[in-house]
Design goal:
Elements (H helix, E strand, L loop, with lengths): L12 E7 L6 H8 L7 E7 L6 H6 L4 E4 L9 H12 L4 E4 L4 E3 L3 H12 L3 E5 L1 E2 L4 H17 L2 H4 L14 E4 H6 L12 H11 L4 E5 L4 E3 L5 H15 L3 H24 L6 H23 L5 H27 L2 E3 L2 E5 L6 E3 L2 H6 L1
Parallel strand pairs: 1-2, 1-4, 2-3, 6-9, 7-10
Antiparallel strand pairs: 4-8, 5-10, 6-8, 11-12, 12-13
């Protein structure tokens, strides 16, 4: 059952798409949103100082185009952009969705239906991930398996649990809840704006509904390994506790699985068949446990098998994230940020500081 449309011409839903140099994917995103049916909605594209064809693509389609203002002191760029979109929005519900998403038919109605069915003020889906190339296919399942273990949807959706999470690629929130928790102004410094907003909503006593949403939305997060490395460098240390231990454990897991397999192959030549069978069994058991963990990340079987070589790559990305946050500068979308002492917030660097990065 879908929430009723607002009266007096006010749309039921405002879809807000922040866009900073998104010419490669914005058109596909908007063209997947425009045919959506079942509720009244508007689409607002926020041009965040793009220097490519982002603005031209938006202007060619029947969407509202607004400009993000200059980033105020103490704000993260994306938070500034989506806040501008929220100020322009007229909907009873707000859907924040990234330009790299593609929405399946019924995406908007499904979100509103889930909100009503579960009595939720915030609904968020983790999209199906589109990956290309060996490195993406290897490391992305490992990362999302860790996310699934750290942010269990059942816990996030349970009002009795303190766990809170959301995915900014599809984050639907009622206007009432958004305004009540202070919107993005209340989390202006937080680079993980989706998780921060979810925490604020849950602290307010309102309900969150969070799940894997491969039946609703898909995304290709990164289009090169350089983008992947930059994105996870800014995020991993913010997403996971005890990053040094996490990196070491995953690297040891890789070494033990591979080591058992290699030694099990070599031992029979020396006549040690029993030892070889024992090591093969240990390695197979560890690999089975690994596959069971990666299975929760919702990737294809070729990605799950390649994920074994993603373990050392994941360890590298975690350690890189830890290093750059401790160094004091991370970058995203051409903007450098200085991590705060708490590790959760980032402050934009001044012009003179940026030139030294």
């Amino acid at each position: 059952m879908v929430a009723p449309d607002a009266v007096q011409g006010r749309p039921n839903l405002s879809v807000i798409v922040p866009a900073r140099n998104e010419e490669a994917c914005l058109g596909a995103c908007l063209n997947s949103l425009l045919p959506q049916a079942g509720t009244s909605f508007e689409i607002i594209v926020v041009d965040d100082a793009s220097t490519d064809r982002t603005r031209e693509i938006a202007q060619a389609l029947p969407v509202r185009l607004v400009n993000a203002p200059p980033v105020p002191e103490g704000w993260v760029g994306k938070n500034n952009a989506v806040a501008a979109g929220a100020r322009a929005a007229q909907g009873v519900w707000l859907l924040f969705t990234d330009a790299d998403t593609v929405h399946l038919p019924g995406s908007l109605v499904r979100g509103l239906s889930d909100a009503q069915e579960h009595g939720a003020s915030l609904v968020s889906y983790s999209p199906a991930q589109e990956v290309h190339g060996l490195l993406e296919k290897a490391v992305m399942p490992v990362i999302f398996a860790e996310l699934a273990a750290s942010y269990r949807p059942a816990d996030v959706s349970d009002p009795a649990s303190p766990a809170a999470a959301a995915n900014g690629q599809y984050l639907l929130i009622s206007r009432e809840a958004y305004d009540a928790v202070g919107g993005h102004a209340a989390i202006a410094r937080d680079l993980l704006e989706d998780v921060a907003l979810a925490r604020a909503v849950k602290r307010s006593g309102r309900k969150i509904y969070f799940r894997f949403g491969g039946d609703v939305v898909r995304t290709r997060m990164y289009r090169s390994f350089a983008q992947l490395r930059e994105g996870w460098t800014k995020n991993l240390v913010l997403l996971f506790a005890h990053t040094l231990r996490l990196a070491v454990v995953r690297l040891l897991e890789f070494l033990l699985i591979v080591g058992c397999a290699v030694v099990a192959v070599l031992l029979p030549s020396k006549g040690h068949w029993q030892d070889a069978m024992l090591l093969a069994g240990v390695g197979a058991a560890m690999f089975a446990l690994f596959l069971n963990r990666v299975r929760r990340a919702h990737f294809s079987w070729d990605c799950k098998l390649l994920a074994l070589i993603g373990l050392p790559l994941f360890a590298y990305l975690v350690l890189r994230s830890r290093f750059y946050h401790r160094k004091g500068v991370v970058t995203w979308k051409g903007r450098p940020y200085r991590p705060s002492e708490s590790g959760r917030e980032l402050s934009p660097l001044s012009g003179s500081e940026s030139r030294r990065v």
